[in-house]
């Protein structure tokens, strides 16, 4: 900013001095005579003109002075504002510096707490491993004694007690296998070695046509049976669950308030059955931790467990209502000690998915997760009453800030549910999702409330229809279902797949050029 100048009124001062001198000189005859001043200069009209010029110049200087004084005052005010702004900026910087300093201190404390937590975790993990190794080392004899006694008890017990002793022996074996995993330095390598050992016995059994080879143990186990064993402690109605699996290797469907389970015979796997049980238990525990915490939870939400066979691999899928996993955590989610759960109650976690990944690696399988998302959809809903009268409605679902909502038509109000009331009973319902084009019908409704869930995805329904039929009236409710969650997919090669895969590798690689091998043998035969 340019400097403001307030100049001295030199013109007025000089002109005033000249005017005063002129007036004094012309007022005395002696001075006039002495300095020979012309008589014309003594005229009064000239004196008035001189005074008038002086007054005019004095006024001009005065106006100019006050203008410059105003400009000066304005610039002073601007400088003061700038000074105040600088002071405020300085104060703000000091406040921020103090605030950031506190944040830095908090960050240091947080980092130190995390480091101490991880150090403590590592110490606890190593301590647990040392304890487990000591227990396993000192418990070999006791384990053999208990195992022998339980086997004898199973042989000698009556039918009612055989199951009890068998369960006890299975639990003891499971505990022993957990100690094996806890004390090994590399879980994946430990499981892989067990699998290769079973693979060798399996090959021998396949080559033994007459059954002369006695194997020390069964090298294979049913993936379906292992998953059933893992699920049994989790289901609410264990008796009903047990009654649904009486027929061995038959497809299984089971549903309760927490689970939707669908399993088919996925073939036999090589290795130890308890390793797959541990894998399934960790996935189920991870799903249970989010069962009651999902946003927009509805009464139709279930933990979905599916076992199928795909491309000769056993495919296990577990869906839960947990929060989506960021892509940035895609590689970290299976690391030891890493957990997306925060809070004091979750301290020390981060083992479940680590064990799952290590077991999958040992089986030479694959594991991945998929973030399940909601999507907008449009439905054509047709309601037929007992009198034959029909009502057709268009319902759309949309993703909003408050979750998954629905509206009637294209201009209706977004709501969590849409309800219709009719003066007579509902005879038939038809609903057609526009994305698939298929039509799903339901009829013969009983008295009371009947539910129709999305038949395309029974394990993950995206909509539900509730019908309440009375004698002379009925009520219909459309519910969009929030399905946001995470699905873990585990693919494990079956025993037959490993056998066929290795044979194919041998055919393709080792025996590709048989003639060249024969030539080498011919050259060697010359030395016989």
Which radius of gyration do the C-alpha atoms yield?
Answer: 46 Å
Q: Could you name the CATH homologous superfamily of the largest domain?
A: Histidine kinase-like ATPase, C-terminal domain
Q: Quick one: CATH class of the largest domain?
A: Alpha Beta
Strand order of the largest sheet: 2-3-5-6-17-7
Q: What amount of the residues lies in strands?
A: 15-25%
State the helical fraction: 40-55%
Total domain modules: 3
Query: Biggest β-sheet, characterized?
Result: 6 strands, mixed
Distance between the termini: 110 Å
| Tally of DSSP helical segments | 12
Q: In the CATH hierarchy, what is the architecture of the largest domain at level 2?
A: 2-Layer Sandwich
Summary tags:
elongated, 528 residues, alpha+beta, 5-stranded antiparallel beta sheet, 48% helix, 3 domains, 6-stranded mixed beta sheet, disordered C terminus, 17 strands, Heat Shock Protein 90, single chain
Q: Care to describe what's here?
A:
By secondary structure, the chain is an alpha+beta fold. It folds into 3 domains: 10-119; 184-372, Histidine kinase-like ATPase, C-terminal domain (Heat Shock Protein 90, 2-Layer Sandwich); 377-483, no CATH class. Helix content is 48%, strand content 21%. The protein is built from 12 helices and 17 strands. The strands form 4 sheets. A 6-stranded mixed sheet has the order 2-3-5-6-17-7. A 5-stranded antiparallel sheet has the order 10-9-8-12-13, with no helix packed on it. β5 and β6 form a beta hairpin. α7 (223-231) crosses α9 (273-288) and α9 runs antiparallel to α10. The longest helix is centred in the first third of the chain and has 95 residues, at 44-138. Mean pLDDT is 81; it is low at 502-528.
């Amino acid at each position: 900013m340019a400097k403001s100048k307030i100049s001295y009124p030199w013109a007025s001062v000089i002109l005033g001095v000249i005017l005063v001198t002129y007036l004094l000189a012309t007022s005395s005859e002696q001075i006039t005579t002495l300095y020979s001043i012309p008589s014309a200069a003594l005229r009064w009209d000239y004196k008035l003109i001189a005074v008038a010029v002086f007054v005019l110049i004095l006024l001009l200087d005065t106006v100019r002075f006050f203008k410059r004084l105003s400009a000066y005052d304005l610039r002073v005010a601007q400088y003061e504002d700038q000074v105040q702004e600088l002071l405020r900026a300085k104060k703000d910087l000091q406040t921020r510096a103090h605030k950031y300093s506190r944040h830095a201190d908090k960050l240091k404390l947080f980092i130190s707490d995390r480091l101490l937590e991880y150090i403590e975790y590592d110490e606890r993990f190593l301590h647990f491993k040392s304890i487990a190794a000591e227990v396993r080392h000192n418990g070999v004899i006791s384990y053999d004694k208990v195992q022998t006694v339980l086997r004898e008890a199973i042989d000698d017990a009556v039918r009612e007690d055989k199951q009890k002793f068998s369960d006890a022996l299975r639990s003891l074996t499971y505990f022993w296998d957990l100690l094996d995993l806890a004390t090994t330095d590399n879980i994946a390598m430990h499981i892989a070695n067990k699998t290769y050992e079973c693979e060798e016995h399996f090959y021998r059994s396949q080559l033994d046509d007459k059954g002369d080879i006695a194997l020390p143990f069964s090298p294979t186990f049913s993936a379906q049976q292992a998953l059933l064993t893992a699920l049994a402690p989790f289901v609410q109605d264990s008796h009903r669950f047990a009654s649904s699996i009486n027929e061995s290797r038959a497809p299984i469907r089971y549903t309760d308030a927490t689970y939707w389970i669908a399993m088919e015979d996925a073939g036999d796997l090589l290795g130890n059955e308890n390793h797959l049980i541990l894998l399934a238990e960790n996935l189920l525990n991870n799903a249970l931790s989010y069962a009651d915490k999902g946003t927009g939870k509805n009464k139709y939400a279930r933990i979905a467990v599916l076992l199928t066979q795909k491309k000769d691999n056993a495919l296990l899928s577990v869906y839960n209502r947990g929060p989506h996993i960021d892509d940035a955590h895609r590689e970290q989610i299976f690391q030891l000690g890493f957990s997306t759960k925060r809070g004091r109650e979750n301290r020390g976690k981060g083992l479940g998915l680590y064990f799952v990944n290590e077991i999958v690696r040992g089986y030479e399988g694959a594991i991945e997760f998929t973030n399940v998302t909601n999507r907008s959809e449009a439905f054509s809903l047709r309601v037929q009453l007992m009198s034959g009268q029909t009502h057709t409605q268009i319902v759309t679902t949309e993703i909003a800030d408050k979750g998954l909502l629905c509206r009637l038509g294209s201009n209706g109000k977004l709501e969590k549910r849409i309800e219709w009331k009719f003066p007579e009973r509902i005879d038939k319902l038809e609903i057609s999702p526009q994305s698939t084009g298929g039509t799903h019908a339901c009829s013969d409704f009983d008295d009371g409330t009947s539910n129709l869930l999305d038949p395309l995805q029974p394990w993950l329904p995206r909509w539900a229809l509730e019908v309440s039929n009375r004698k002379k009236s009925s009520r219909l409710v459309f519910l969009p279902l929030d399905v946001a969650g995470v699905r873990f997919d585990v693919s494990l090669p079956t025993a037959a797949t490993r056998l066929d895969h290795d044979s194919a590798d041998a055919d393709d690689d080792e025996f590709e050029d048989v003639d060249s091998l024969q030539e080498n043998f011919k050259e060697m035969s010359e030395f016989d």
